[in-house]
Model the fold of this input.
Amino acid sequence: MRMQVQQNISLKPYNTFGIDITAKSFAAFTNVDELSEMLQHPTSNSKHPTLILGGGSNILFTKNFDGLVLKNELKGIELVKDDAKHYYVKAAAGEAWHGFVLHCINNNYAGVENLSLIPGNVGASPMQNIGAYGVEIKDVFYELEAYHLNDKKKVTFSLNDCAFGYRESVFKRMYKNEFVILNVTYKLNKQPIFNTSYGAINQELENMGVKDVSIQAISQAVINIRSSKLPNPKEIGNAGSFFKNPTISIEQLNKLQEEFPNIPNYPTSSLPTGQAGTQHPTAKLAAGWLIEQCGWKGFRKNDAGCHAKQALVLVNYGQATGKEIFDLSEDILQSVKTKFGVQLEREVNII
Ligand code: FAD
Ligand code: EPU
Done:
């Protein structure tokens, strides 16, 4: 079957920042045969880049895209096996992440309830090891299947192969733009292990009048907390946290505490999955706090801004260009560096 490849189309509806740029070519695929057929297209070669697009919720387009955008529309969720303790559930990459979470909750598959309401698709969940409210994908990941763009072969990745770290994986770095993630299998618990210690979950469960904690109740609590502080991309363009929370040495933390005794910090020392080595104690800082202290919270220039309720989220009030958002992120980065000597790193993929 000949696939339909559209020319010079606006990607505004395909990214949650709502940036209006043009892609030279654009096509959607619903199975691997269609994907491999599209990779024969003249705009898919070394002179023109190929971009695999999910929900577009972790991307900032800063210029027109001179290549082929392939929108992943692989669908399906399947219980592949179970054992005494676990369900193994395989989801196709084009499934909406939150839809998958709801499917798990409805079937009493426990483990992803804390990750409720994260935008985007299943296929992007391993890209940056999505995380929220004390849980990351690595905690429930079993394996994934990916298609190598050049070799045109399927490869299976286990947990250790992915080298998951905080907002990191091999797909974001070493294998960037090499693989299309086709499906992910998650290992979910038959007996839930409730994780309510993070942030305001316990407080919210109390506000909700919950007596018996359940995965349904945790999911609702997380949805309530997220909705109260994160802007809805349907109303204000954004891609969630724009920067990562920075990790610094304990020595640097001690120095900062002399000048800023209230600086929020969390002890951390994790190594990426599958990597051996010595764990060095480090501390994670709250980038939102650092940015707020520099006076950026609620800042707006033209249509590019720093969200008034969450300084870590940069927003597009309507007509901002990707370059305006990027330039704002650069100014924020510089001022945090000047005030605290801490280098922020962007979480969002800049294209
Ligand atoms: P896209 O933005 O489409 O793509 C992201 C990157 O992955 C791109 O480089 C793309 O090329 C690549 N990619 C996508 N799909 C595939 C595939 N199948 N194969 C290979 N490469 C692929 N993230 C968190 O971790 N925690 C949060 O709490 C969180 N909250 C958010 C809140 C809001 C309001 C928003 C807008 C975003 C938030 N995010 C959060 C970020 C975002 O939702 C996640 O990173 C999500 O996983 C991105 O999914 P996507 O399908 O939209 O990916
Ligand atoms: N803070 C401020 N001012 C702000 C924002 C935050 O002072 O404007 C401080 C507060 O002290 C607060 C602390 O930062 O206690 C942490 O804030 P919050 O709980 O809102 O979380 P975050 O660290 O800003 C991270 C993730 C989110 C994730 C939440 C919940 C990163 C980069 N961000 O945000 O993920 O949903 O925790 O787990 O790790 C995303 O990746 O896109 C994302 C939204």
About this structure: The radius of gyration is 21 Å. The longest strand covers residues 179-189. The mean pLDDT is 94. The pocket of flavin-adenine dinucleotide (ligand 1) is lined by residues 16, 51-59, 72, 93, 118-121, 123-125, 127-128, 130-132, 179-181, 230, 233, 238-240, 349 (CB under 6 Å).
